[in-house]
Amino acid sequence: MINFNEKEILEQLRNNNMENFNLIFEKYYNKVFFFSLKMLKDEYHAEEITQEVFIDVFNCICKLKNVEFFNSWLMKIALNKINCRIKKIISEKEKSSNNDILEFLESENKNIIPEKSLLNKELNTVLLNEISKLNEKKKRVLIMYYFNNLSLKQIAKIENIPVGTVKSRLFSCKKDLEKKLLLKELIAI
Matching SUPFAM superfamilies, A to Z (predicted)? Predict the structure, then answer.
């Protein structure tokens, strides 16, 4: 709940009197920063997001209809910024993900004898190729879960879908990849 003084300051801000903006900034900075840090697990990105959020608050607070909802409005801005940042990071990672995924898969097989290692490299290449063929929604969920180590709940927030849908997409990805890899194996025989 907003106290009277804060409510008054928010009303002033809403009416383009930015004289006391720093008070709101100081009060909510840590909340936005630590929320961003929890979601992004990266201090640099969390700091950037926090700055972007308060720039948006400064520029758009006049659009806030009721100052009683400031906290939820602020956190919605933060969540939207975080989602955009995660999608951008994932997009950038997808560009280089073929190498990253291959490196990840190869690192899992370091202690394998050379003949098996060669087979695993071939399998990894096939797996990488099949992952790149998945539809975008499934591929994003797969990469966020297995390669970015995000929780089902975090992925659900980012994608704005229920946790059950995240689970379903992951299950579907696994089944698709299993079928395609089995088919490739049968063709190779």
Answer: Sigma2 domain of RNA polymerase sigma factors, Sigma3 and sigma4 domains of RNA polymerase sigma factors
Count of Cβ atoms closer than 10 Å to residue 92 Cβ: 10
| pLDDT digits (tens), the chain, 189 positions | 455 488 888 888 888 878 888 888 999 999 999 989 888 888 999 999 999 999 999 998 888 888 888 888 998 899 889 888 888 877 776 666 555 555 555 555 455 444 444 445 666 677 777 877 888 888 888 878 887 778 898 888 888 899 999 999 999 988 888 887 776 665 655
Angle formed at CA 30 by CA 27 and CA 31, multiple of 5 degrees: 85
CB 127 within 8 A of CB 181: yes
Q: Do residues 1 and 9 make contact, with C-beta atoms less than 8 angstroms apart? A: no
CATH number of the CATH domain containing 178: 1.10.10.10
Q: Which domain holds residue 117?
A: 109-188
Q: pTM value?
A: 0.54
Angstrom distance (rounded) from CA 51 to CA 78: 10
Asked, for residue 91, whether it belongs to a domain, the answer is no
